[in-house]
Amino acid sequence: MHDVIMIRASDWHQMTDGSDVTGLKYKLTDYAICGQAEPVRMIFHTAGIDYEEQLIEKDNWCVIHQPPPAERMPVLCVTKPNGDTVVYKERMAISRWLAMQYNLMGTSSSEYYLVEQMLSLCLDLEGQIRFVLGSDGERQLDLMEKLLRKDTPKMLEIICKAISAPHGLLVTGNSVTLGDLFLLHTLDQLHCLDPSILRSDYPILTAHRNAVYDACPRLVQYREKRPLIVI
Question: How far apart are CA 77 and CA 88, in angstroms?
Fold first, then answer.
């Protein structure tokens, strides 16, 4: 038998009001060669939260004279006002937890669903991209052609329908959420593969990006100055 946890609609705001984040200090550690932690950075800049970052070469842990904090990156160390430190692992778990703390997972259960729906779509597309990049030689060329000419257009059409619903251009319609940020991140990866794929066929994606930028000037400033993200 499974335990069932019931959450009342009136309790939703209590889960997302960020009341327990005062005085927290954040240190984000990631390998310098990949963009796994980019959604986490985007959350920090959207919410206007200061954080420390440590980017390291994968083989250079000896330089800082300590063992890797985890087998997989990124890692987020959160220090409380009393000095206690909690280490958070796994990119998506970190992103969801941090987004929940700063009201970026929606303000109701229905909005939460919309955010998770977009995350699911983006992760599917990202998984296809990484599968292609992990292949070799002629097989990679064949898979890349299929990805860009068949699989990606199909997935982008589904994503466009998700953000063209009556509630508006943003994923939930009301405010920027992790769903919006992760969509921008996923489209960045597509742009690295083929800058032309998003130029003319998907105007709603351009409109979505502009809507996010209008709502998040701090995010715009960060994205204009950030280093190249390698996927």
Answer: 6
Measure the CA–CA gap between 104 and 113, rounded to whole angstroms: 12
Work out the average pLDDT over 177-199: 90
**Of the candidates 88, 74, 76, 32, which has an alpha carbon nearest to the alpha carbon of residue 56?**
32
Which two structure tokens, joined as six digits, stand for 77? 């160390």
List 30's β-bridge partners, or say none.
Answer: 55
User: What whole-number distance in Å separates Cα of residue 3 and Cα of residue 198?
Assistant: 45
Question: Quick one: CATH architecture of 24-102?
Answer: 3-Layer(aba) Sandwich (3.40)
This prediction's pTM? 0.85
Closest CA to 78 of 22, 38, 34: 22
pLDDT band at 135 (very low <50, low <70, confident <90, very high): confident
Element (H, E) at 178: helix 178-193
d(CA 161, CA 110): 17
Q: What are the sequence ranges of the domains in the chain?
A: 24-102, 109-216
Class for the domain spanning 109-216: mainly alpha
pLDDT in tens, 14-40: 444 444 678 999 999 988 766 789 999
Long-range contacts of 11-18 (CB under 8 A, 24+ apart): 12/107, 12/108, 12/109, 12/112, 13/107, 15/100, 16/100, 16/103, 16/105, 16/106, 16/107, 17/103, 18/101, 18/102, 18/103
- Asked if 16 and 172 count as a contact pair (C-beta separation under 8 A), the reply is no
CA quadruple 221, 50, 184, 216: dihedral positive or negative?
A: negative
The owner of tokens 């987004």 is 99
